[in-house]
Design brief:
Elements (H helix, E strand, L loop, with lengths): L3 H10 L11 H16 L2 H21 L7 H12 L3 H7 L4 H8 L7 H11 L3 H19 L1 H5 L3 H5 L1
């Protein structure tokens, strides 16, 4: 196995910046390099980096027309990234664990206050968390109540 300095010099020389096959020694060396860098990164930094990734996932979801993903699933991903238990997160927030569980399972709405607290912790805007929830509700209503909504027309209202 090549030592870290050798692999790092290859990166700066462009050797490992091109496409590589999964089964090659070069790929295995690259994976080892990534693992060693992750292991050297403090937990708080790893979490901050992961939270940026979560923010991008939420933004991508909002921009796409994917299958509905409840906001609670993103909150669950957030809790998992923190590497803490749900009950500990609930206790930290002074929320009953059963209430948090209902939010995570889509049985309860994410409150504005909780979205603001999560924003404070995650640095992901409360508006983004709430936009997921609102977008999902709009999609659901459009899907299941389209006919009852379509009957309303401006022309009929003003005549």
């Amino acid at each position: 196995m090549k030592d870290k300095k050798d692999i790092l010099s290859q990166l700066s020389n462009g050797v490992l910046t091109e496409r590589m096959d999964i089964g090659t020694k070069e790929f295995e060396d690259f994976k080892l390099l990534i693992r060693s860098k992750v292991a050297e990164t403090p937990k708080e930094e790893r979490i901050k980096i992961s939270l940026i990734g979560l923010k991008f996932q939420i933004e991508d979801y909002i921009k796409s027309s994917q299958k509905t993903v409840p906001v609670g699933k993103f909150v669950k991903m957030f809790i998992d990234l923190l590497e803490i238990r749900q009950v500990d997160f609930a206790n930290y927030l002074n929320v009953r664990p059963s209430n948090l569980s209902k939010i995570l399972n889509g049985e309860r709405r994410l409150t504005i206050e909780l979205a603001l607290i999560i924003e404070q912790i995650s640095n992901i805007d409360a508006e983004l968390w709430l936009r997921v929830q609102n977008m999902n509700e709009i999609r659901s209503i459009q899907k299941y109540n389209a006919q009852s909504i379509e009957k309303y027309k401006l022309k009929e209202l003003i005549n």
